[in-house]
């Protein structure tokens, strides 16, 4: 019967001996790592990973530097965290200039000028050390990175900080002293070389006149030589004009007595903002420790006015035939001169406290 035959066949198949699989010609080899070797291997792997990460940061900074004007990298809160808050030690240092465009109008801070000198310092370092990746230059703007300002503890400007490789906290970075701003980029070099041990090299300042401009000026000079010789022979040049010499003499006199050269050397501002009222400008500063440009020009104007009146009296008034006109002019000159001298004495007394006293001859008492 088929029902009886099927169980018999099934039993026969199940009882048939199974063939074992062929042996693997390349059996896996099991390796046992000693616990003593495991820790050094892990440390080596961590060091290799950290070294690779540091190289990545250096590569990114070099790429940003190549795309930045004068090699000054612009940082934000995000990039500050990435490049300056990474685990110490880092294979590079960063010199950061803190800027605020909203304060560029305050002439007493000199922020635009210091920012240009900082860029000049950066360009000079990279020109003298083209392959160096030990020092990078960067700037941070207040309106974009207020969190970074608070992390560094910056509460006044101008402000420059050096973040060295061993600085793990931003607040531990070194601040550039205000004295290093006195000679601009030349004094900043001293700070960088003293703190980093790197040689910046000479400051490379751009020439006042480019090569093409020099060639153009030379051509114009050569062309003008024949015309100039002709005018000189005829006595018809500006150098023969007495009015020009008189105006030049007045300018030299005014420039001297107004302290113009002092203002240029000391970078004296014309005016400052009142500390109590930012909307108010101060043109006269009370105190002998500081002088504003407006003060010098005001006193220089009074000196020049008196000198001009004396010149008019001695050279022009004596040629007037009308005696009445002479007397009236002399009275006007004396009145204006007395007012000008009194103003100078008053301003000097108000600023320095120095006073002038009148002494009568003893025989008049």
TrEMBL record:
InterPro entries the record matches: OligosaccharylTrfase_OST3/OST6 (IPR021149)
Signal peptide (residue range): 1-15
Keyword DNA-binding: no
Keywords, sorted A to Z: Endoplasmic reticulum, Membrane, Signal, Transmembrane, Transmembrane helix
An annotated GO BP: protein N-linked glycosylation via asparagine
Predominant cellular place of this UniProt entry's protein: endoplasmic reticulum
Location of the protein in the cell: Endoplasmic reticulum membrane
Record-linked Pfam families: OST3_OST6
Membrane topology per record: Multi-pass membrane protein
Transmembrane feature ranges: 214-233, 245-265, 297-318
GO CC, any one term: oligosaccharyltransferase complex
Classification via PANTHER family: DOLICHYL-DIPHOSPHOOLIGOSACCHARIDE--PROTEIN GLYCOSYLTRANSFERASE-RELATED, GH11935P
Subunit annotation: Component of the oligosaccharyltransferase (OST) complex.
UniProt similarity note: Belongs to the OST3/OST6 family.
Cited function: Subunit of the oligosaccharyl transferase (OST) complex that catalyzes the initial transfer of a defined glycan (Glc(3)Man(9)GlcNAc(2) in eukaryotes) from the lipid carrier dolichol-pyrophosphate to an asparagine residue within an Asn-X-Ser/Thr consensus motif in nascent polypeptide chains, the first step in protein N-glycosylation. N-glycosylation occurs cotranslationally and the complex associates with the Sec61 complex at the channel-forming translocon complex that mediates protein translocation across the endoplasmic reticulum (ER). All subunits are required for a maximal enzyme activity.
Protein name, entry field: Dolichyl-diphosphooligosaccharide--protein glycosyltransferase subunit 3
Classification of source organism: Eukaryota, Viridiplantae, Streptophyta, Embryophyta, Tracheophyta
């Amino acid at each position: 019967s088929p029902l009886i035959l099927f169980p018999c066949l099934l039993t026969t198949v199940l009882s048939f001996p199974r063939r074992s699989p062929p042996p693997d010609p390349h059996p896996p080899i099991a390796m046992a790592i000693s616990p003593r070797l495991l820790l050094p291997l892990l440390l080596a792997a961590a060091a290799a990973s950290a070294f690779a990460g540091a190289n990545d940061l250096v590569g990114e900074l070099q790429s940003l530097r190549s795309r930045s004007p004068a090699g000054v990298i612009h940082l934000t809160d995000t990039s500050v965290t990435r490049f300056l808050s990474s685990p110490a030690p880092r294979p590079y240092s960063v010199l950061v200039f803190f800027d605020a465009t909203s304060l560029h109008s305050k002439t007493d801070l000199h922020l635009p000028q210091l920012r240009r000198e900082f860029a000049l310092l950066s360009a000079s370092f990279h020109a003298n050390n083209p392959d160096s990746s030990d020092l990078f230059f960067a700037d941070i703007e207040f309106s974009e990175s207020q969190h970074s300002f608070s992390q560094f503890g910056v509460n006044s400007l101008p402000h420059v900080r050096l973040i060295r490789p061993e600085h793990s906290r931003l607040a531990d970075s070194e601040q550039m002293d205000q004295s290093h701003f006195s000679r601009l980029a030349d004094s900043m070099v001293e700070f960088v070389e003293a703190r980093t041990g790197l040689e910046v090299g000479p400051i490379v300042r751009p020439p006042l006149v480019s090569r093409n401009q020099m060639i153009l000026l030379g051509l114009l000079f050569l062309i003008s030589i024949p015309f100039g010789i002709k005018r000189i022979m005829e006595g018809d040049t500006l150098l023969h004009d007495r009015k020009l010499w008189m105006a030049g003499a007045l300018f030299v006199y005014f420039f001297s007595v107004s302290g113009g050269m002092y203002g240029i050397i000391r970078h004296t501002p014309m005016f400052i903002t009142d500390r109590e009222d930012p909307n108010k400008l101060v043109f006269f500063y009370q105190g002998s420790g500081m002088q504003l440009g407006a003060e010098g020009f005001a006193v220089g104007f009074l000196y020049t006015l008196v000198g001009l009146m004396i010149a008019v009296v001695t050279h022009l008034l004596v040629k007037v035939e009308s005696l009445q006109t002479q007397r009236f002019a002399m009275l006007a000159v004396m009145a204006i001169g007395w007012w000008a001298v009194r103003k100078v004495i008053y301003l000097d007394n108000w600023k320095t406290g120095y006073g002038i006293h009148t002494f009568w001859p003893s025989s008049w008492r």
